[in-house]
Amino acid sequence: MTTNPLANIRIVLVNTTHPGNIGGAARAMKNMGLSRLYLVDPKEFPSDKAVWRSAGATDVLDDAIVVETLDDAIAGCSLVVGTSARERRIPWPLLDPRQCGESVFNEAGQHEVAIVFGREDRGLTNEELHKCNFHVHIPANPDYSSLNLATAVQVISYEVRMAYLQATEGNTLPGHQWDMPPADAKSLESYYEHLEKTLVELDFMDRDNPKQTMTRLRRLYNRVRMDQMEVNILRGVLTAMQNYVYYSGKVLAKFGVASGVDALRAEALADKSTAPTPRTEAERAAAADAKVQD
């Protein structure tokens, strides 16, 4: 038994019609660190189309094992999970992709495991699904749940890899150093003061009755944990907004229009009140008849 659990996981494709889907599945597997591909009675393989769609994952294709039956593909496996796009008449133990990834990885450290994918047009038969310990269902959009075979392989393989990373590294992301230091408390406080002042100038917020606006904005930014460069960029945006408001007000003043959103709103309402009242349908029809008679 290999010390790498991923090497004990088989991806099994049953009666695949299009060789491109085999190549796409091989690519998805290699992306996620899986390498053992089993093909049950494929319509066309080997194939140049499969090689082209694999985008460099030719080693997975070269090592693929072609068998005649599903029984041959899952021989020696102590856990078999079959993909199912719909509920069956007889309920079966059902996993979502995340649960599938965790179960498959955990058991792959102990024995051989197989994840079985069906035909492009109709999936796995009931008889084939009955050979599986669990079924896994990808909860796609119910109004459009048709997944490409390689896409389905990618989804499940991704969840297996996430389980692997969590178990081996305690984290799903590689460790890295941030490129800028985090913003300190003083910088953040200055930013919040700048933000509040700008929102007041835009008439977005009433300084005397701010409600919970600034509290919620502080919570938002604190959750993000901005770095110093990000704070500088955002303060630059605020300054640009303030400059626009200031210089727009000076231009409007030349035409005798007061600056500020409230003043512009009042001006617009005044224009609307002096606008001619639209004619009714009957008045427009009468005017049209008069024009014809003329």
Rounded Rg: 32 Å
Mean of the pLDDT scores? 85
Highest CATH level, the class of the largest domain:
Alpha Beta
CATH topology of the largest domain: Alpha/beta knot
Order of helices and strands: EHEHHEHEEHEHEHHHHHH
Helix/sheet category: alpha/beta
The N- to C-terminal Cα distance equals 101 Å
The portion of residues assigned to helices is: 40-55%
Beta-sheet strand percentage? 5-15%
CATH superfamily of the largest domain: SPOUT methyltransferase, trefoil knot domain
Q: How many helical elements?
A: 12
How many strand units? Answer: 7
The side-by-side strand order for the widest beta sheet comes to: 3-2-1-6-4-7-5
In total, the number of domains comes to 2
Shape verdict: elongated
Core attributes:
Alpha/beta knot; 2 domains; single chain; 12 helices; alpha/beta; 51% helix; Helicase, Ruva Protein, domain 3; 294 residues; elongated; 7-stranded parallel β-sheet
Summarize the structure.
The protein is of the alpha/beta class.
Task: Describe this entry's structure for a reader.
By secondary structure, the chain is an alpha/beta fold. It has 2 domains: 5-169, Alpha/beta knot (3-Layer(aba) Sandwich); 185-274, Helicase, Ruva Protein, domain 3, CATH 1.10.8. The chain is built from 12 helices and 7 strands. Helix 1 (19-31) packs parallel to helix 2 (48-54) and helix 5 (97-108) packs across helix 7 (149-169). The chain is elongated, with a radius of gyration of 32 Å. 27% of the residues are buried.
